[in-house]
Amino acid sequence: MQKNLIVVGASRGIGLAVAQFYQAKGDNVFSVSRTPSTIGRWIEADMSNNEGIQKVLHETSDHTIDALLYMGGVWEEHAFTENYDFETSPYSETHNIININQIAPIELVKGLLKSLKKSRNPRAVFIGATSGLDISSTAEVAYSASKFGLRGAVHALRIGCNNQGIGFTTINPGLVGTDEVLKDIKSSPQSGLIPIPIDDVVRAVDFVLQSSKDTEIGDITLTQKFTV
């Protein structure tokens, strides 16, 4: 059965891979991004502000939504490299990271609850990060704060909406082999790092969507390998 899916961050990286995967399966994809996406129906929207969030809600309001797949995310300049500098990170960068990684997912869920509840097996899946886990060893302050906060929000949604039939899942990968990440880690002192293949993240998302509505899937953690 064809599903209606909202994929945030669908113009590149994980979001693009996820959008392509579901379009190939024949699902109806709403691709949300600032830059153009050729997948499904593109909604040009900036998740750093309420105007962008409300645009997504308005343009999908007439549809039953089977899944919100929040695959977007941003981080500090030079994040995950030895050039990252917390002291020189401007307020605007911190503000933007928290808005996109934490506030926008919360507000989208709030606005989509009615549309999600119409689905037979509604799901909301978010890309977190191992930076948002207690085992994290990353130094990026705003990014880590946003991912910790996202996990907390999803946990609270799981509790608060447990009688509404919506499944809430956070997928927490380490560094994923997107073009942006490969560029960022090129100068990293961790030369033996092997990024997680994007296809593995897509498979994790699809595992959640293919699971029975009777199964609650909380956090899924994916970590990368290191060569010796």
TrEMBL record:
Record's keyword annotation contains Cell division: no
Pfam families: adh_short
Transmembrane segments annotated in the record for this chain: none
Extent of the signal sequence: none
GO molecular-function terms, A-Z: oxidoreductase activity
Keyword vocabulary terms for this entry: Oxidoreductase
Similarity remark: Belongs to the short-chain dehydrogenases/reductases (SDR) family.
Listed name of the protein: Oxidoreductase
The organism of origin for this protein: Pseudoalteromonas luteoviolacea S4054
Lineage: Bacteria, Pseudomonadati, Pseudomonadota, Gammaproteobacteria, Alteromonadales
